[in-house]
Amino acid sequence: MYEFKEEYKIGIDFIDEQHKVLFDIADKTYNLLKNEFIIDKYDKIVTLIEELQQYAKFHFTAEEEYMKSINYKRMFTQKIAHDAFIKKINDIDFSKIDENQDEYILSILKFLNDWLVEHILKSDKLIGK
Question: Domain Hemerythrin-like, which positions (predicted)?
Answer without folding.
Answer: 11-127
